[in-house]
Each structure stands twice: as structure tokens, then as C-alpha cells.
Amino acid sequence: MKERIEVSFRDFLGAIQAALLYGAGHPIVKKAIEKAHQSITDCLTEKAELTIGIIGEELAFEKEIFFDLSKLAKPGITYLKDRSIEKITFKRGFQLVELEKFIVFLVMPKEDVKKDLGDYLKFMGVHNIIAGKVGVVSKAAEQALQQALDRKGLYEHSLEEISQPLIGILNREAIDGLALKLAINNIVDKLGTQYQQLLKLDTLKRYDLGTFTHLINVSILSMYFSSKIGFTKEIVLDIGLAALFHDIGKLYISRKIIRKPGQLSSMEFSQMESHTVLGSALLLQYIDTLGIMPVVVSFEHHLRCDLSGYPKAAFPKKPHIISQIVSICDTYDALSARRSYKVDYPPDMIYNLMMRGKGTTYASSLLEKFFQLIGVWPIGSIVSLSDKRTAVVVDENQDDIFSPIVKVIYPEKEEVKIDLKGNKDGLKIERYLNPRREGKDFLHLI
Ligand SMILES: [Fe+2]
Ligand SMILES: [Fe+2]
């Protein structure tokens, strides 16, 4: 089905291109429109209607975003967006003549378009094609979205958008897979420039909303990590989606057990371990919407590279690379978060703790790459330098993960950055200042 839809999208955009090149009445255009009509009609044998969505720069259909096609069809997409068309629905039984009229309208010079699109189509007797804006990406909505982001911050906004489907799954309701994918896509688009704000690796993480926060943190961190090691955007999205649900099974386990500060009894421990199996069983019901990776990752994220973790499978097999990525990000977030039952560890301690699992719990190369990207002291860490000045980490040095680039914030707020790598004064980080305790007084300076 996916291929047929892709073909029909391509043919439809091809017909628009042809009409723009040759003018609406040309025989080549007629042929192209016939071809598009045929391939769309083919798709409509299985579905009562077919909706093409244009979200941002991408073409979308239901839960699918057609990245590759979007690249090819960029001129067509820009053209439609320019005419405020972000959604086109073809209904079963639509006629060739309707498509012709629609395309004539599409290629009309913008200034000749006096009527509203809906009115025009009705006026021309086109009843089986509906075109217009998709609510969420209209100009007004885009502005509202921006305002919401400014007000709440990107992180809180993303948390809100993603919480809905999570709750939906817990209630075993149907969820809007495409909306979820777009919410994640929105995050991926911002990872390049605003990942600091999104990752909340350190100073900004002043919230403890429990498992939900953990799920979104792990999702964002996994997407950041996987995009930096070269996965395509499409796979990064799948990784984000899988990571988002890795601990969904925990929401079925008694909070008493999850939050217990001391050691768990063997009974409690096996209940805790069951979150992997519970989660994957639940996610199996959402394969059509979310794909198979959330099931795999939920099942494997505590398995460990040497298979010494859990659950014990009948036919043990090394965890999938995506499970391995999520597993690293999972532990990193769990160790850095403060919970009612545990303190938040300083970053250098997290590094040392995780390095103990190098080659056993985690694949060596993957773990090393992770710390090269995140650094021992993640961006945003407030640190005390060896000359007693206080600074904030602003960038990492991949070839010297202990010596990032910092900006002094106290005693004098200097805008100057200091690269601690090979620093000639021998300046180094002496101590981490926890933003909830000794670092609290410096928060307003960063
Ligand atoms: Fe887990
Ligand atoms: Fe987790």
C-alpha cells in the first residue's frame, strides 16, 4: 500500500509540474492528469479517501512521512504551500474531470485567484476533492505554536504534546500515530540548534515528573545521540519513538516498588523486571501505528550487551543496535535524575559508573562515542574551576571529554569563553556545582 500511495503522490505532483510547464490544456498535461487520476483511484479501492498532508517541508499520509519523496517533490510542495494548501483529500469515486479542474485552479496565477479555494471547487462542481489547511500548521496556528513555545519553553511543550499518546496507550485507546510522529519530528528539527534546551541534561532539569519525564528525556537524548553518529532522519525518528515507550510497562508496576529507596526483595525485583515484558506485550497491539521497534526496545533495553541482564529469553541474542542506544541513554538519564528515592549523581560520577559497564553492559565503541558527544560535563553544567572562578560548560571537546569549553559567570560575568583543552594556565574543572544545591545561586547568571 505504501508504494501505491507514494506513486500516487508522485503522479499527482508530476501533473502539477507538467501543468506549470506546459499550461493546463496541453496533451502532455492531459496525460499526466490521467496517470495521476488512475493511481489515486487505485489507492481508493482499499480506502474510502486518501489524504495528502504537507507538514513543514514533508509529505505525509496517516502515520507515514515520506522523507525521500519530499526531497524529490520539494518544488511541488513549496508551490502548494504557497497557495496555502496543506491538505488534499480525494474521495472514492472522484472523476477525471474533477482532477482536471482542480489542477487548473492550482496553476492559476495567484493574483487571478479571487475566490476562496473551497468556494471555487464547489462552484466548479468538484465535490470529491477537498483542499485546504491542516489546522496545526496554518499560519495562525504556527504563530500560536511559537507563542506557546516562548511561554512554556520547548521542553515543556514537547512534553505536553507527547504525553497525550502515552496516556492513550495506557488506556488502550487508539492513538494518532502521525500526530505523534510529527511531534517527534518537530523535536528532531530543533535538535541541531536547540538541543541544549531540549536535552535538559543538567541545569534546566528542575522537574521531576517521574516516568513521563524520563521517557521524553531518553527519547530526546537517543535522537540526539543517533543523529550525531550518522543515522538518517527517518531512523532517528524511529529511534525516538521506540525510546519514548521503552519503560511504558513501568506504569503498570506499583509505585511503592518503583520508588522504594532500599533493596528490593526478590519478589519485588522480579515484578520490577517484568516492565520489559509487560511493555512489549502492550506495544505489540500498536504495531500498525508505531511499528515494531518500540516492542523490541521495550523488551531488550535491560538485556545488556553480554546478555547478563533481563528478561531471560529462551533464545538469547545480542540486543538490537537501537536497544543498545536507548539502553545507554536510559541509564544516563536515570542516574542524572533526582528522584524521591535517590540523589542525582554528579556528571563525573555518572561517567565513572557507566564506564564500569564498558564492554559488558554496553558495547565499548558505542559508550565511548556517547561520552565524546555528551562530554563528562554536559553542556549547561555549572562548575568550579581550579582558580576558584565559577563557570558554565558551553561546548564539548570530543577529543578531550574532561576538558570542555566554559564561560566564566562568577565573580565577574565575562563573556569570554575558555577552552580547557590544553589550557596553558593548567586551568581545569575542580568540582561540579549541583544546580539544586550549591549551584543554585548561579542559575540566574547562565
Ligand atoms: Fe526500563
Ligand atoms: Fe528507563
Automatic annotation (TrEMBL):
Domain of life, per lineage: Bacteria
Entry-linked PROSITE patterns: HD_GYP (PS51832)
SUPFAM superfamilies: HD-domain/PDEase-like
Gene3D superfamilies found in the cross-reference section: Hypothetical protein af1432
Ranges where the HD-GYP domain occurs: 190-386
Chain segments annotated as transmembrane: none
Xref: Pfam families: HD_5 (PF13487)
PANTHER family, per the entry: CYCLIC DI-GMP PHOSPHODIESTERASE PA4108, CYCLIC DI-GMP PHOSPHODIESTERASE PA4108-RELATED
Stated name of the protein: HD-GYP domain-containing protein
Source organism of the structure: Candidatus Sherwoodlollariibacterium unditelluris
